[in-house]
Amino acid sequence: MSEWWTYKLYDFLLFTPHTYYRLFELYNAAIWPAQVPAICLGLAILPLARRGGGKLPRLIAGVLAACWLFVGIAFHAARYATINWAAVYFAWAFGIEAALLLWMSVTRGLSFGLADPAARAGMGVFLFALVVEPLVGPLFGRGWRQVELFGVAPDPTAIGTLGILLLASARRRWVLMIVPTLWCAVTGATLFAMKAPDFWIPPLSAALAVALAGWQSSSAARRRPAGQGEARAV
Amino acid sequence: MRQTDTLSRRAFLASLAAAGAAAVLRPPRAAAYPGPAAASPEPIQTRAIPSSGEKLPLVGLGSWGTFNVGEDVAARNSCADVMRAFFAEGGRLIDSSPMYGSSQEVIGYGLAKLGHPRELFSADKVWISSGAKGPEQIAQSQKLWGITRFDLLQVHNLVAWEEHLETLFAMKKAGKLRYVGITTSHGRRHEDIEAVMRAQPIDFVQVTYNVLDREVEERILPLARERKIAVICNRPFRRGELIRRVEGAKLPAYAAEIDCASWPQVLLKFIVSHPAVCCAIPATSRVDHVRENVGASYGRMPDEALRRRIAAEVEKL
Questions:
Q1: What SS3 string covers chain A?
Q2: Of the four listed, A126, A208, A234, B297, which is most buried by Cβ atoms within 10 Å?
Q3: pLDDT of A152-187, one tens digit each?
């Protein structure tokens, strides 16, 4: 498509809103009961991330990696790609995020347990992705069978990951925030093109998470004595 | 693409019911228009493809968005129902593209389910930046449709048009294709389209033309007549925007004079009444809408004065 720049956002919407939400309905039915362990893992991650220490960071990164890999394969590659040729690229992006998380898990690149105001806000972002976001669709008149859940659907998985990363220290977490933030922008644009009333939720969540992470980094830099670099994972 | 119920649609459905009752009470010609093709005393209106003289009904069926339903079997069956109604009403041309997600595959599913209707005029596109990969994509498209030869292949949005046109002309010469065309939409690259129309022996050009997007009236439609090129009009409802625009507006009295029972039919007749236009290709996922759309191929058409009036009125809404 050599003239891609001549297209508007709306032109990239290849499907109707009905088809898009029906995709989630069929997806949820096909992967059942995978939603149950996904919710359980989500519920387990938050207290683990608050506590931090020991092998918990590796476990959290590993669980998140599994979620991203599952969504990349089961949703993007196997389902979304049937109505959107760009979903193949989304699947790769989710695979890359899973690989990065796995790498962080193996190399102990992350540590959790931050308890500053931004970290507390991160907990709120994660809880929003886990509990509130699945309710958004039904609140706007969509069916319960089309519900989007953390760990199996892309939007709550991306938002939840950004929330959890606010509880993590280490400079390398910025690398992990790239794909979720980009996804929130892409899905926000898709929902906007579909005239979905909740289109603003993913991009606003991502913007909030990135702003809070920036505030955390600048606060940490101010606290460090002059001439001392940022410590490796706390 | 029309997704939502509107007042005018309810009026249209009510008029269909009224037409059914009138058919019992009065002679067919006195019944409110439109009715199913089988019950219509008039043949569907057609326009000749200038390069061959072959005639096509004035309203075809687009597949952008509406037929991209993936592997949803229920939705695929609904699309097959739309195709069944389209052919039953007298329609022939179905248009798609490799760009439209699963639309080609869904069309193939519908055609197989309907036993590959002989009336089909298959129009697809080649849409790949590599000219060398064009034949491979065309073969894949044929496979998805479940056919061995397309009636019309168009270079989608002028992507690698020089190389693809070479391929398409060679296919036509070899008897593997009947017609060659190019497309654009949203008013893009009209100067390039004009240049191709002047320089290449194409049979079809597909452009955006509707009651509000009338730029093609200035140069492209006259040029198409001069060069004997058939014109297919995409985005007849601006992907539903025009339907929403006229929603709630009272159907003007002149609609009855051109045998229109709804605003969508008025909007379609505005397009297909232009003498340079071969057909319009509205997309829909609903049987009642496809019947309504093809209904615009029947009955009287607006003259130039009424066409200007329709455009002016819709602009004011």
A1: CCCHHHCCHHHHCCCCHHHHHHHHHHHHHHHCCCHHHHHHHHHHHHHHHHHCCCCHHHHHHHHHHHHHHHHHHHHHHCCHHHCCCCHHHHHHHHHHHHHHHHHHHHHCCCEECCCCHHHHHHHHHHHHHHHHHHHHHHHCCCCHHHCCCCCCCHHHHHHHHHHHHCCEECCCHHHHHHHHHHHHHHHHHHHHHCCCCCCCHHHHHHHHHHHHHHHHHHHHHHHCCCCCCCCCCC
A2: B297
A3: 999 999 999 999 999 987 678 899 999 999 999 999
Facing residue for B69 by CB, picked from A17, A19, A79: A19
B4 at A interface, C-beta within 8 A: no
B99 touches chain A (CB under 8 A): yes
Q: Residues of B with CB below 8 A from A13's CB?
A: 65
A79 touches B at CB < 8 Å: yes
Residue type for position B59:
V
Prior bond of A33 cis (ω within 30°)? yes
Is A3's CB within 8 Å of B285's CB? no
The predicted complex's ipTM stands at: 0.85
Instruction: Report pTM.
Output: 0.86
Of the candidates B68, B158, B285, which has its C-beta nearest A14's C-beta?
A: B68
DSSP annotation string for B194-235: HHHHHHS--SEEEEE--SS--GGGTTHHHHHHHHT-EEEEE-
